[in-house]
Amino acid sequence: MYIQREIEKELIKLIENYQKPICILGARQVGKSTVVKHAVQNYDSVYINMFDTQGINEIFNEDNDISVDRIVSSLELVAMKAITTDTILIFDEIQSNPSALASLKSFKEDGRYKVIGLGSNLGSFLLTKSKYSFPVGQYTRLNMYPINFAEYLEATNNSFLKERLISQLRVGKIDELLHTKLLVLFDEYMAIGGMPEAVKSYLMNSSIEEVDQVKADLVDGYLADFGKYEYAIDNTKALNVIYRSIPLFLNKDNQKFIFSEVNYEYKQLTKSFKWLNDNNYAVLTPQINSLSKPLIANVKESSFKLFANETSLLIKQANYNPFTVIKEQDKIYYGFVMENYIATVLNKYNEVYTYRKAKTEVDFICEKDNRIYAYEVKSGTNTKSKSLNALMAKNEDLISIKLTRDNLRIDNVSIIPLYAIDIILNQKILDQLIEKKVSQ
Questions:
Q1: I need a surface site. Which of 85, 243, 329, 354 has the fewest CB within 10 A?
Q2: Nearest to residue 325, comparing CAs of 336, 341, 339, 340?
Q3: Cα dihedral angle (104, 110, 112, 118), rounded to 10 degrees?
Q4: Rounded to the nearest 5°, which phi and psi values hold at 430?
Q5: 396 burial class (0-12, 13-18, 19+ CB within 10 angstroms)?
Q6: For residue range 54-82, what is the model confidence (pLDDT) as tens digits?
């Protein structure tokens, strides 16, 4: 079963109008290899995994040059087939091999072959001792994330509802019946999650137990994977401790990561936190106490919240039954689950911060096009927010948004349904609605 992903259309466009190597970056098991293999099924291609393809370390190592002719000739022996200028070369886990990553520059300058690289985060290259320089500007980057709600609607044969939602969002009003249907589907989506293997399992057999096992295996796979990148982190044990502690701290009142509770100091873990965030295993939202621009200048370095890269995996780590969590919408568990989801959504489009000063705390702050956006997450239909109102009183240009289970309303404080925020940002609808309201 193949689940159609939005990124595939963009990838095919880049292939058809190829100018330089394409790199698709995202966390483990979000579907990078699957979508690429599906996109190139009508092309001649050679797939190479940098971790397990026999002989690949002999081709890509620092004792050899990275000339295109030598690499292609060697790859033909590995692939046991002729490689022509019509062949697409796919290098999976490319971030693990500095020579392969550096070769992107050679392929860009040569221009005869199409190359697609897959990996987590190419920035890990900078942490290796390599004679090669990082191929700045030599590739086109595409970021890939878990299945989003719009893709889930497509996968569950609800494309009509998706298209109706998009059209109604553009005019700023969602039909109440549509809103009710989408809340039900969104709850289902939150329980199943966005990891492709989990979604496929649910679609094929509707077994919650099997979906749960898939997610348990994914969490274990993440933890096992950390050992492959010891060169890039402080130590594997610390990384495991950090990742496992995410639900623990999100379930506390202020959700701040507390170093003493994991028996480490911040300076011991700086590289590990950065690695988790950069490689899409977690979303780190630094704390700020001022909205002066740029927001990054207000960051308090050692104070932040840490969210899981995919919310259903967070639920699994916390050992909660996902459907129970979703049903009990007034419980604190559901509250931090929704905050985690919104953190992952906002992180796809902007740098994300959390605001805290004295008794005023706002869940998320983003800066875009010289505007500041404040987001408060309300898991139910309770839309009261003293902190957001206090922040608005001191910052009249602030764009304030509450994300709730209520229907859409654009106002001084806009209400956006939890299920709609990803689509609104992806389709660039938010600013259009706000401008429309201002002009009325």
A1: 85
A2: 336
A3: 0
A4: -55, -55
A5: exposed
A6: 889 889 887 788 899 999 999 999 999 99
